[in-house]
Amino acid sequence: MGGRVRRYRRFLRDTGAWARGRLPRGVAGGVRRHRWFLGVLGLGAALRVVTVLGYRPALWFPDSYTYVVTAIKPRPDLVRPAGYSMFLRLFEPFHSFALVASVQHLLGLLVGVLVYLTARRLGAPGWAAVLASVPPLLDAYQIELEHLLVSDTLFATLVMSAVCLAVSRATGPVSPGSSAPSRTVGLVAAGGIGLLAAAATLTRTVGLPLVALFAAWLVYRARGRVLAAGVMIAAALVPIAGYALWFHTSHQRFGLVGANGVFLYGKTMTFADCAVMRPPPDLAVLCDPRPPAARPPAQEYVWSKDSPLVRLPGITFTEENDALAGRFASLAITRQPLDYLGSVLSELARSFTPDRPVYPDAEVYGYYEFPATPPPPPGRYPATVGAEFARRYERGPIDVRIAEPYAGWMRAYQSVARLPGTVVLVIVLVPPVTAAVRRLRRGPAGRSWRFRRGPAGVSGGPAGAGPAAWPLPWATAVLLLVMPPAVAEFDYRYVLPAVPAACLAAAFMASKPSLHNIPRNVRI
Asked: In this structure, is residue 296 part of a structural domain?
């Protein structure tokens, strides 16, 4: 009875505060504690509003038109999984790409919020959590990517949601004396991680290795118990297998896409030397006599009409051509492993350049800049077909309308507010270097940091959680950075989804390594 009376009095007090135009005591305290983050969040929201006003309805990338076709006519595409297309289909009844772009901006803000709240929840100091949220919230290229009709913003949101859930208390170890509800919560969270990983994979196939990464993390987090990892894997594989079955009914072959061999072939053509490989006659037709230094970027071997693969009969992504390209790529990698490794590392190094040189060509590079003039209509045949479907989706013109001065403000902002590649490298290096230094300082007999039963009886309490949690977001960031140059090619937009995870890992390392550094009733 006393508790009800106290709650009623608190309700009356807060209602009176709102009526007098003042914030209730608890709300005002929360605003004060998070004022720096709220300032960054507000600035990020304002920049996105300016972007929506300046570029209407949205910005287009060549891939955008394929996504729209699949959204209007649901059928697995041979090149890209249909996750983003289904996202577009959710908003098709509103017939507004401006709404889609606005939702993507909200997702971008959500990523920044997830980074900040997760860092604070696991003990990072306020300044570190705020700094970690700055790149996803204020980087001009991130904002421009959110305004493009491509899958990367949705993918980044799904990945960060899974990462933040995986390092939260709910998936921590279950002690023998803990209650059944704690175990149930942990398994439910593990299932949620699996579903998020599956959704990310069906949005961009580069998310598939994350399933194994999250499973390994849950095994480590639960100290050898594999039940949570098993639940996570099952929750991930069921929708992935379902999509593979749908793909089979459409293309008579199992898979998520039908272009893995083709893109890997394009990758290996940056170094493949047929004089070293000595391919059999059926593969020799894919050779390029030019030396690797004189060849175009990898993407040209997938899309250019001069590519040996594209010149073969039939469309590029038939099962036969994809298998042939995959065999060529496998031979190139096994016969020239050091050249393959060098190619991957040289492409990966592009993520960390201090400036932003034009790559892979001026056309693709230009899509990542806020334009000063309306972009020309698509020229390639598949994109022109997709443009017709886009007009059906919009029920009107889809031409980009540039409104000044808003567009000019964003162009000026983009010229100064961007995350240099060298800073990305520093962010990626901070967690392992800091962990190594701390290990050396405490010596081989020092206590290790582990997730422990929380002081309030909740598994995976916050004590020492920050330093112990960094491997998962860090490994996620590294995986997202390495995979594209390893299996296809480097692209600037592939770097951006890795940045929030890297920032979260770096923020964790600002936490004190003590196992008792966080109060019993921590407030964030």
From this structure: yes
Query: Are 53 and 5 within one domain?
Result: no
Residue span of the structural domain in which 273 resides: 260-351
Cα separation, 308 vs 379, in Å, equals 22
Instruction: Write phi, then psi, for 251 (nearest 5 degrees).
Output: -125, 5
Give, in order, the Cα–Cα distances in Å from 208 to each of 82, 152, 164, 433.
14, 15, 18, 28
- Same domain for 214 and 107? yes
Do residues 62 and 150 both lie within one domain? yes
305 and 426 both lie in a single domain? no
Q: Are residues 341 and 451 in the same domain?
A: no
| C-alpha torsion sign, points 69, 71, 73, 74 | positive
Sequence-distant (≥ 6) Cβ neighbours of residue 133 within 8 angstroms:
37, 40, 41, 112, 113, 115, 116, 503
The residue written with tokens 């942990």 in the block is: 186
| Residues 382-438: tens digit of each pLDDT | 677 888 999 999 999 999 999 999 999 999 999 999 999 999 999 999 999 999 998
| pLDDT given at position 385 | 82
- Does residue 81 sit in the same domain as residue 220? yes
| Residue closest to 78 by CA, chosen among 300, 281, 247 | 247
Same domain, 236 and 148: yes
Low-confidence ranges of the chain (pLDDT < 50): 18-19, 173-182, 185, 446, 448-464, 514-524
pLDDT tens string 244-263: 999 999 999 999 999 999 99
Question: Would 416 be classed as within a structural domain?
Answer: yes
- Are 237 and 210 a contacting pair, CB within 8 Å? no
Looking at residue 295, the DSSP 8-state letter turns out to be S
390: part of which helix (H) or strand (E)?
helix 381-394
> How far is 288 from 330, CA to CA, in rounded Å?
16
Q: What token pair was written down for 143?
A: 């904002």
Q: What is the pTM of this model?
A: 0.88
End-of-domain residue from the set 300, 329, 351: 351
Distance of CA 463 to the CA centre of its chain: 28
Element (H, E) at 402: strand 401-402
- Cα gap 183→192, rounded to integer Å: 14
Does some domain include residue 327? yes
Q: How many domains does the chain have?
A: 3
Last residue of a domain, one of 351, 376, 396: 351
DSSP string for 28-79: HHHHHHTHHHHHHHHHHHHHHHHHHHHEES-B--HHHHHHHHHHHS----SS
The continuous run of DSSP H or E covering 401 comes out as: strand 401-402
Question: CA nearest 62: which of 498, 491, 500, 420?
Answer: 491
Does one domain contain both 150 and 276? no
Q: What is the DSSP annotation of 428-443?
A: HHHHHHHHHHHHHHH-
Is 372 part of any domain?
no
